[in-house]
Amino acid sequence: MLSSISKTYFIKTFGCYANEADSGLIAGLLEDLGFVELKLPKFKNEVEEINYVLKKVDLFIVNSCSVRQKSEDKVYGIGKIINQFDREKRKRSCVLLTGCIVGSALGNRKRYQIEDLQRKTRNFNGYFAPSDVSGLLKALKENNLMKRVKKISTGKVERKKNDKNHAFVNVSFGCDNFCSYCVVPYSRGGEVSRSKKEILQEIKCLVKNGKNEITLCGQNVNSWSLSKSEKAKIRLGNSQKLPFAGLLRELHKIEGLEKIDFISSNPFDFTNDLVEAITLSKISNYIHIAVQSGNNEILKAMNRRYTAEEFLDLVKRIRKAKPRVEIGTDLIVGFPGETKKQFMDTVKLVRKAKFAVAFIAMYSPRKGTVAQMTLKDDVPLLEKKRRHSYLTKVWKQSKNEKK
Ligand code: SF4
Q1: Distance, CA 220 to ligand 1 centroid (Å)?
Q2: Is residue 1 part of a domain?
Q3: Structural domain harbouring 108
Q4: pLDDT value of position 148
Q5: Model's pTM, two decimal places?
């Protein structure tokens, strides 16, 4: 399709499934261009790994995450390793940075300027925003890794998947929900849904090539294909039809497709229509719905648009509709202003919900978010750690109790 001689590449991916899915897309495109992936032996530590990559590859892509400061610091750490790398040994590899850190600087909802990022990552040779195929092609051209740039749409690229039976498929990109602590609406921009035609085409092609399990991905799959005004009206518990529930029903009919998962799904627009759709036999028995807190004031400050009672009622309805279901969640402890009493409401909710899986995080302010700009990060780190360990203990005890 495009001109390139055989060159090697390696992608280092940080963060969530969205970055995993993007890395699959980037790898698919690179292999289409004639690049070959560098296979890594086992290393004792990251310094050894990065040094090996720099020595061997023509193209090194770092797909970054910015959900916490720690995640961003990992990328700056790679910058330091590049800096210290013996230039003689380096195979003139081009190092490109993508993912949420870049999205926060190049997107139209900026959290910081590209010049600031360039200053912090001097040893990188270029940047492209997450899922931006044309930005990647431009960076390859600028770094003499391909001769000419053609227009390619994301939907036309076949992703590279390392799993034999399973594949991630994006149904949408970005997010319009603006939970007050979250960087995603800035780093990945506004929500854009892929067309049903494109999604069905991709999945049918995957099934033809031997995949029988897919995970549909989006920051909020429930709002797939809804207009902004429709999204604003939809609330948990109401009976409006969701296009996403319709998509699940359609996928369920595809012969050869055996299991359908989806992530992320928010509680506030998990309507009755979706509760009904997940009863289909091919829909996974694991449903992940992030509750974040069990206290209504904190949920309001987080801009989550549901109450703890509504969430527990949703869990009850899902369990009634799909008795063998396992429910997983995400929780944040130590959100600004969270009192011990408010934290104990989260503990109570966790005891009642009996989650099979729980990812518990300590709040950390992210630059440019509403919480960081307007609320004081006033729960001391020691107290956050204490709440984290107590909630983890409660969750572990509760998960095996009878539902
Ligand atoms: S729904 Fe909320 S937490 Fe999830 S990506 Fe969007 S803003 Fe972030």
Answers
A1: 7
A2: no
A3: 8-154
A4: 66
A5: 0.82
